[in-house]
Amino acid sequence: MAPRPAEELGYKPLDGGWGWMVVFGAHISIGFAYSTSKALSIFYKAIQEDLGASYSETAWISSIMLAAMYAGGPVSSILVNRFGSRPIVILGGLMCGLSMATASFGSSIIYIYFFIGVIGGFGLSLNLNASLTIISKYFLIKRPLANGLAMAGSPVFLCFLAPLNQYLLDKFGWRGSLLILGGLILNCCVAGALMRPVIPPGKPSSCAPQKMVEEQPRQCNTKLKQSCMKNAKFLDLSFFKDRGFIIYLIGNVMFIFGAYAPIVFLSAYAIDQGVEEYSAAYLLTIMGFVDMFVRPGTGLLASSKWIRPRIQYFFSFAMVFNGTCHLLCPLMKSYPLLVVYAVFFGISFGMVFALIFECLMDLMGNQRFPSAVGLVTIIECFPMLLGPPTAGLLVDIFADYKYLFLMCGSVIAAGGLFLFVMNIYNYHMLEKEKTAKDRQHNQKTIENQGQVSVSEAEMKHTFEAAVEQTEPEVKDKSGAQTDPRPEDAETPSI
Length: 494
Fold this sequence. Notes:
Blueprint: H1 6-9, H2 19-39, H3 44-51, H4 55-71, H5 73-83, H6 85-103, H7 109-138, H8 143-151, H9 153-185, H10 187-193, H11 210-232, H12 243-259, H13 261-272, H14 277-302, H15 311-328, H16 335-398, H17 402-477
Helix pairs in contact: 2-4, 2-7, 2-8, 2-9, 2-10, 4-7, 4-16, 5-6, 5-7, 6-7, 6-9, 6-10, 7-8, 9-14, 12-16, 12-17, 13-14, 13-16, 14-16, 15-16, 15-17, 16-17
């Protein structure tokens, strides 16, 4: 979201102090929100054997969870505006922790869909949105740094959750692992407790003049109306008239469709290639570790004077790079080669997610970005919901993981090429429209100047006529005025 100026907040954020504890809490909350659905893939093979489910059926668990996390964004925003971030993060942690514990007693895949996917996913959406919102209230100047540290929770938690889940699976089975994982997620409640509300300094005292007290309801009503207007524009469908937004949305949907299936099935693919289970789980750890450093590095590179004007093309390159990595994955048969794939996967994945919202802000601007990102995340629910199950269906049909990676890689690479070509077209059309607009503006300026010249000529003509009319009177005063009647005119008789 675009940072709000201090005068719009009504106070100047401290940019530090207790705010760093809030960042620590957001780091935990966001870390669980983004990594839980990925790390659950460790349990899929055991769930398949216990419940008799297929690859595509188990893949729906992460898909439903991610879709619910994104779809719950508008509801989470309303709750945060009404009750604040602290109770909402605590509520989200309770929902997600209890849903994991309850799912451990499940006897059918539908049972797990509901508790882990729907309830757990919605709980994660409460954690995510509330954490991002409160950071904006504690930080202004240092807000990019604070957001970067908070968002780093995703790869950091993925680094240790993947091997931890494998250890828990070996010791306690998938049911005991879900129960313990639910207890770990309850730490989001502790993280929420750190998010105490911001108390703006310099509140008016009780002995304030009566006039100030009378003006408060009017100011509150004004703020309420402004808030309602912002909420009303949250799903502004006029964005579909913007050519740049449509191009971005199509490319983004193609990326999201193929982005998460390789993460979900990476460990299972490595095990299928004969890799030991712990080593297979560490592939996700390697990917998360690389991703942890690539995201801020990509942000610094994108801020340079060479990349910044071409950031849309840089985003296209990152998508093509990511898709190419997946297309080459079926060639990686040994564990060292799979480690190389995990490293390049982490680089390309981190590059894309470091740029994905920055490119939207570059297109829409700071003012329109909040409404645009709300619309994008809701539309992303559908490819996020369908991507992993479609990939799992390919595994069920062909009994081979290579078709999964080929599908995801081709879709993502095609999306990157689409963005590259269409951005060239979009910038060409924008330049053409700008030239036409400037030409029209210049033509109007010339017409206005012509009208001014005509007006000046008319004024000059009017002035000369007025001077001519006043000349007889001037002659009369000097004694040179003659009778205006003709000499041969007859004098009327009396």
